[in-house]
Design goal:
This protein is an alpha/beta fold. The chain contains 11 helices and 11 strands. It binds 5'-O-[(R)-(carboxyoxy)(hydroxy)phosphoryl]adenosine and zinc ion (ZN).
Length: about 325
């Protein structure tokens, strides 16, 4: 079975072709224009998606070496994300499916991120404790069985990636800044000491860290950018690591998956690996290119849903927010 996947949840346009567990094409086009504004400009993102979807679909099929006739299923992200952006990819995918008579499946972007772990580790079976850490989300999701998700922790304010992006913007690193923060941090000699956030139990909080970094810069304007970047990483990732260890102990689940754009970061991976060695849990990372937004993960999640629940209705519309997982009451 061949699935064409489309993701336009935010500012990247992505089109993928996935065969039997094999990625045949996974194209991602990042719109550099947002960097000039220090954040995503929704209208510009929608316009770029509209221009890119058709040629990128043609190129994805060409890269995969197949024609559209050979596609069996069309999958697209329906949410959460920016409404305008979502509608571009979703409407395009529904149009393709409707015109060709092929089945269409709507995919939750967060479920897509979770499937990036299973795509990279096909033999991994639930239960898996997942840390989803991206520009819009920081949450702990217990995958109890296929399609059975329990959210056991989430951020009270900013997402981890959002905090890296906002401090990176102050430092003039453009948008998104996570990868630039990682590159700079490698050159640090004397990391800036920043406070570790400490909300309740399995909650996360990043707005205080962002303010602490801003205040530090105001008082110490000559701070080396590398030292600030490293200090920021240390505080941000210690917080993530601390919550993962707590969640493992609380849930008794010793398989931990990491996904979302921030999961690309090598410092975060090594901190979590060290914690895993100490606390006895095993870590599962996706391939780096599957951490940040991409359509291969949407194709794989879509296929899994389609095989179990059948196709989505063509009147399925986009959603900006939705309770993706059941919430833990304790
Ligand atoms: O998953 P993603 O591509 O989009 C969302 O669904 O939000 O994640 C984007 C986030 C941004 O905040 C970006 O700065 C961060 O992932 N990011 C990184 C790295 N690469 C991307 N953060 C830290 N280190 C990286 N290497
Ligand atoms: Zn994402």
């Amino acid at each position: 079975m061949i699935t064409l996947g489309i993701d336009t949840s935010c500012d990247d346009t992505s089109v993928a072709v996935v065969g039997e567990g094999q990625i045949l094409a996974n194209l991602v086009s990042s719109h550099l224009i947002h960097s000039e504004y220090g954040g995503v400009v929704p209208e510009l993102a929608s316009r770029a998606h509209t221009c890119l979807l058709y040629p990128m679909t043609e190129l994805a099929l060409k890269t995969a070496g197949i024609s559209f006739d050979e596609v069996d299923l069309v999958a697209a992200t329906a949410g959460p994300g920016l409404m305008g952006s979502l509608l571009c990819g979703l409407s395009f995918a529904k149009g393709l499916a409707c015109a060709s008579g092929k089945p269409f499946i709507a995919v939750n972007h967060l479920e897509g991120h979770i499937y990036s772990i299973f795509l990279s580790h096909p033999h991994l079976v639930p239960p898996v404790l997942v840390l989803l850490v991206s520009g819009g989300h920081t949450e702990l999701v217990l995958v109890r069985a296929e399609f059975e998700y329990l959210e056991i922790g989430a951020t009270l304010d900013d997402a981890c990636g959002e905090a890296l992006d906002k401090v990176g913007k102050l430092m003039g690193l453009g948008y998104p800044a996570g990868a630039a923060v990682e590159r700079l941090a490698k050159e640090a000699s004397n990391p800036v000491p920043l406070p570790r956030p400490n909300p309740r139990e399995l909650e996360f909080s990043y707005s205080g860290l962002k303010t602490a970094a801003r205040n530090y810069l105001a008082v110490h304007p000559d701070t080396s950018p590398a030292d600030l970047a490293r200090g920021l990483e240390e505080a941000a990732f210690d917080h993530l690591t601390d919550r993962v260890v707590r969640a493992v102990k609380k849930s008794g689940v010793y398989q931990v998956g990491l996904c979302g754009g921030v999961a690309r970061n090598k410092r975060l991976r090594s901190k979590l690996s060290a914690a895993g060695d100490e606390a006895g849990f095993k870590l599962y990372f996706p391939l780096p290119e599957l951490c940040t937004d991409n359509a291969a993960m949407i194709a794989v999640a879509g296929r899994a849903r389609y095989e179990t629940f059948g196709e989505s209705l063509l009147d399925t519309t986009a959603f900006d927010r939705v309770a993706f997982a059941q919430r833990s009451s304790s």
